[in-house]
Amino acid sequence: MSKELLQKQADTIRFLAADMVQRANSGHPGAPMGLADIATVLSKHLNVNPADEKWLNRDRLVFSGGHATGLVYSLLHLWGFDVSINDMKNFRQSGSKTPGHPEYGHTHGIEITTGPLGQGIANAVGFASAAKYAQNLLGKDVINHKVYCLCGDGDLQEGISYEACATAGHLKLDNLVIIYDSNNITIEGDTSIAWSENVKKRFQAIDFEVLEIDGHNFDQIDKALIQAKNATQPVLIIAKTVIAKGAVTLEGSHHSHGAPLGVDEIKQAKLKAGFDPEVDFFVSAEVKGAFDKLIIGSTSQNAWNDSLSSDIKKKIEELQNPDFDSVIYPTFEEGSSVATRDSNHKILNAIAASIPGFLGGSADLAPSNKTELKGMGDFPNGRNIHFGIKEHSMAAITNAMNLYGLFRVYSATFFVFSDYLKPSARIAALASIPQHFIWTHDSIGVGEDGPTHQPIEHLSQFRALPNFYTFRPADANENIDSWKVALKMKAPTAFVCSRQGLKVLKDEKAYGDVSNGGYLLKQRENANITIMASGSEVILALQTACALEKNGIIANIVSVPCFDLLLEQSKEYINKIIDPKTRVYAVEAARGLEYYKYADVVFGMDSFGASGKAEVLFDEFGFTIEKLQAKIEEDFKNNK
């Protein structure tokens, strides 16, 4: 293809992006203009089909930097995805297909919501990891696509990117190609004011093949991409670029990073490139035809489909459509003591035995989290993923693995360390990614490890997160019921499990069930109070109710395995499980402030705990039958 046409293609991208930002009077023109040459050449190598955005063996392209959004929408339009000129004209407007940062499920062709810088790199590692496992299951002739990631200086400065890339190097993900837009510019100015590391040496140290090119030289870009396709390691292409390439006075300036270029600047740039300065959002038929992926992509996919054997097609079908009703769950003896992390371990293994695409791992805590899938080998040949002590990248990698199209993947750590992965959990919620987060050591019951390891505000934090469902089961059977609900949800779920043993309760429910988020576990005639609780505090509530009854205070008990689901129930249902005539108490060995939605009084934590044996701490902070009874009796007496 002629250099002249390549230049027209690149300039078309530049001016589409600049026009979008200018029309919206908001956004980032600099990065899209600087990346336009790379994107043009990459288009020749990328194997996708806009007619079927879910084609399994398509190349994945992840845009890690949200400041390249103008580039994303320009490319999707030019490739033939469902993004029109009018959509681009509505860039950053309410209700448009082209929001300020690309969102999975909202805009056709977006592989994943990346959001904060660095997430996209970890997501790309996740896609490449899933592809490597799929390759081992289905064969290299079936899965042979690449995962490309466009990133910038900001992405590589975020710690999550180093975590994820270290994992990629360790796993030798030769299907991963990261293209680094090295323009040395951030919002505050030149990167040298805060950053001086040698990126090439850093990536060589973690077993990447590193290529360095001029990001505006079509031949060098093409040669590097060909070399990356044949690599035996993950590849980093360091592309030296100029931000706002093609602008007249703002080329190379940090002022082009996050503000419109200005009408006159854009007109002068178009004039310089031979475009009509009076025409916005212009795409010539020649340029559109050079970019269009529809015919090429459909041909590639058809050839791939024809190559599949009936056995492979059956395997893919089983992986894509898991039968969660086929799981044979373990049984637990009533009255026995089983920590919910232990019952969870048996449940995970039961699910894995029936669901071939169920896998996951922990941030170096599998023996404590009880998340090992026994006899199922180590990733990428087996189903146990060893993420290392990298909670944030673990969650972002797993987000992408869940969107790959074949697998249901869980991640695990101690509950208190969920702080390290909250941004990725939030993205999972925003994008409705059905990742299962497993968080153990759920309360001050952690004991001797002390306040740094005792989650206090964490339940409240995740219950406040929209479209995120946090299960804290009261016993082994409620844990099973919670999994039955979670496996069929199209949203992220978390399992918050105990370290200490919890009594397996009678499997009886007065009204409702786990799918309602909360249910009436124990109903008594003439009840004058209701006690709500989750997890280990449910048995405490039951035992306290027996003690209270001797003094004429009759308690109904509501178990709340998933507060988020409870919030979705009708007022009619709430009134059936929480009698409006009763005084309502909630008890939780955590902050618990969200219970004020339903409760008159909340008995929770107002400190960060302490170091000591679990039973001593429960007594110290009021979570014993005697102390809870005394508090309820005093309040009830004063509020008759």
* Residues in β-strands, percent: 5-15%
Biggest sheet record: 6 strands, parallel
Give Rg in angstroms.
28 Å
Which spans of ≥5 residues are poorly predicted at pLDDT below 50? none
Mean pLDDT equals 96
Structural class: alpha/beta
What level of helicity do the residues show? 40-55%
- Span from first to last CA? 85 Å
Q: Mind explaining what this structure looks like?
A:
It is a single chain. The chain has 640 residues and is an alpha/beta fold. 40% of the residues lie in helices and 14% in strands. The protein has 24 helices and 20 strands. It has a 6-stranded parallel sheet with strand order 10-9-11-12-14-13, with helices on both faces. Strand 13, helix 19 and strand 14 form a beta-alpha-beta unit. Helix 5 packs across helix 16. The longest helix has 22 residues. The mean pLDDT is 96.
Keywords:
640 residues, alpha/beta
Task: Give the SSE map.
Layout (H helix, E strand, L loop, with lengths): L2 H22 L5 H16 L14 E4 L5 H11 L5 H5 L29 H20 L8 E6 H5 L1 H13 L4 E7 L2 E2 L2 E2 L8 H7 L3 E6 L3 H12 L5 E6 L22 H11 L11 H7 L2 H14 L2 H11 L16 E2 L1 H15 L3 E5 L3 H4 L14 E3 L4 H13 L4 E7 L7 H9 L5 E5 L17 H6 L5 E3 L4 H11 L6 E5 L4 E2 L15 E4 L6 E5 L3 H13 L5 E5 L3 H4 L4 H7 L5 E5 L13 E3 L10 H7 L4 H14 L2
Parallel strand pairs: 1-2, 2-3, 3-7, 6-7, 9-10, 9-11, 11-12, 12-14, 13-14, 17-18, 17-19, 19-20
Antiparallel strand pairs: 4-5, 8-15, 16-18
Helix pairs in contact: 1-2, 1-3, 1-10, 1-11, 2-3, 2-9, 5-7, 5-16, 7-16, 14-19, 16-17, 20-24
Task: Give a short summary of the structure.
This protein is α/β, with parallel strands linked by helices and 640 residues long. The strands form 5 sheets. Strands 10-9-11-12-14-13 form a 6-stranded parallel beta sheet, with helices on both faces. A 5-stranded parallel beta sheet has the order 1-2-3-7-6, sandwiched between helices. A 5-stranded mixed beta sheet has the order 16-18-17-19-20, covered by helices on one side. The protein is elongated, with a radius of gyration of 28 Å.
